[in-house]
Design goal:
D-Amino Acid Oxidase, Chain A, domain 2, 13 helices, alpha+beta, 2 domains, FAD/NAD(P)-binding domain, single chain, about 425 residues, eleven-stranded mixed β-sheet, oxidoreductase activity, six-stranded mixed β-sheet, binds flavin-adenine dinucleotide, EC 1.4.99.-
């Protein structure tokens, strides 16, 4: 094929696209102002799970809304000023919590997640990083029988979609994760799930594979993107002024996609930012976890990572670059100390990052309407680490005009652009 492709953004999505398009014979250059996998794709919880087909805006959201709007829970906070400014996004997001929209999204995400799981396995093997993968699922923890009963919609959905899971009582949970304190009468072990012990290192291993196969990685701030003189060419401009011509451009800037699309292209992307924080901890008394756990009452995920136990927080809806607010992390830490013998914090400053979310909780994976050669791959909300490789597979098929492994319709740009 030998056509030049410029990929903007070297998170999990951009790096996966780089590998896929290289495999298909394109001449690929990957741009990022940082080294690959240093932003959102670094700081996540490392979970790759079929249970993630449940978007945050599912029909159960309506019942939880009065409590969430009080803005005091560990799992969800919002900045009222940001919400007021992004009211159309919020209303659209809520409108998708209806049964029909939820079914469409769950079906689409399920297909993308399943495609991605296989692609991850292939890439991990090719990149020599299979040792980072754990195949023992993840566990939802419930602090009361009532909380467990409240998870009915999720369990029914997992059942309908054939997501392997097992309900555990306190004794069964203690056998699987003896490090947890006995405060959870019920748990749900999602068996159709895996996790990695260093998401950033996985992206870096994929990027190294791309480079070893002759791909070019440029560490540079991208300042502009415009059609160049020839009708089928694009010009990517670095902040230094260096310019690069390409027949195709893939915009995979994660939470920076909205601002870049607006400034460089005049596109209005309805994206909001679900911020999360993380902190690493040691463990006391030789306690350990063998897989990530999600404390549904505490509003955090605790994942065993190469760096220590990573506590990651729920959602703070706020501007991407708003000042940090550690209230949720502090609450999550208190709750996690009730559940597990955490030792000291291992860093002085918490990490933060933004989940980039479109109103229907599905990414855009498509050519930009009216702009041939400009491809969009962003909006992966809570599951971009998992679904980067499936995104790449779908994008590669669309670019090459091949049959797609999943239905592309739910991911079309025309939903919003
Ligand atoms: C707390 C938390 C927990 C999460 N847990 C999970 C999980 O367990 N499983 C899961 O699947 N997902 C999880 N996610 C979501 C996942 O991390 C994201 O969906 C995913 O990382 C998005 O990947 P991306 O490649 O689109 O964006 P990013 O990884 O953010 O990559 C975008 C890249 O663009 C670059 N960039 C931006 N602007 C410019 C510019 N002008 N010039 C050059 N480069 C630029 C950035 O440097 C960055 O490297 C979590 C997210 C958070 C915040």
């Amino acid at each position: 094929m030998n056509q030049k492709v410029a990929i903007l953004g070297a998170g999990m999505v951009g790096v996966s696209c780089a590998l896929e398009l290289q495999r298909r014979g394109f001449d690929v250059t990957l741009f990022d102002r940082r080294a690959p996998g240093c932003e959102t794709s670094y700081g996540n919880a490392g979970v790759i799970a079929r249970s993630s087909l449940m978007p945050f805006n599912h029909p159960g959201l309506w019942g939880a809304l009065p409590k969430l709007l009080k803005n005091q829970s560990a799992s969800f906070r919002y900045d009222p000023a940001f919400m007021a400014k992004n009211l159309p996004w919020a209303l659209s997001f809520l409108s998708k919590a209806r049964r029909g929209a939820f079914e469409a999204t769950a079906t689409a995400l399920d297909a993308l997640i399943r495609l991605s799981a296989g692609e991850h396995r292939r890439l991990l093997a090719e990149a020599g990083a299979t040792h980072r993968l754990r195949d023992n699922g993840w566990i939802f923890l419930y602090r009361s029988e009532a909380a467990y009963a409240g998870s009915r919609l999720s369990r029914d959905t997992f059942h309908r979609f054939g997501v392997a899971h097992q309900v555990l009582d306190a004794g069964e949970l203690a056998v699987l994760e003896p490090g947890l304190k006995p405060i959870f009468p019920r748990a749900l072990w999602i068996q159709d799930a895996s996790s990695v012990d260093s998401p950033g290192q996985v992206v870096q291993a994929y990027a190294a594979l791309f480079a070893s196969r002759g791909g070019t990685i440029r560490q540079a701030e991208i300042a502009g993107l415009a059609r160049s003189g020839a009708p089928d060419r694009w010009c990517v401009t670095e902040a230094s002024g260096a310019a690069h011509q390409a027949s195709h451009v893939v915009l995979a800037l994660g939470p920076w996609s909205r601002e870049f699309a607006s400034k460089a292209l005049g596109l209005s992307v309805p994206m909001a930012f679900e911020r999360g924080y993380h902190m690493h901890y040691g463990a006391r008394d030789g306690a350990a976890l063998t897989r990530p756990v999600y404390d549904t009452g505490g509003g955090y995920v605790l994942s065993p990572m190469a760096q220590g136990l990573r506590l990651s927080t729920g959602v703070q809806l706020t501007a991407r670059d708003a000042p940090r607010n550690l209230a949720q992390l502090d609450l999550a830490e208190q709750a996690a100390r009730q559940a597990f013998p955490l030792d000291l914090r291992l860093e002085t400053e918490a990490w933060l990052g933004s989940r980039p979310t479109l109103p229907d909780s599905r990414p855009i994976i498509d050519e930009c309407p009216g702009r041939p050669g400009l491809w969009l791959a962003f909006g992966h909300q809570h599951i971009g680490f998992s679904t980067g490789p499936g995104t790449a597979s779908l994008l590669g098929s669309l670019m090459a005009g091949d049959p797609c492994a999943v239905d592309p319709a739910p991911f079309r740009a025309g939903r919003f652009l």
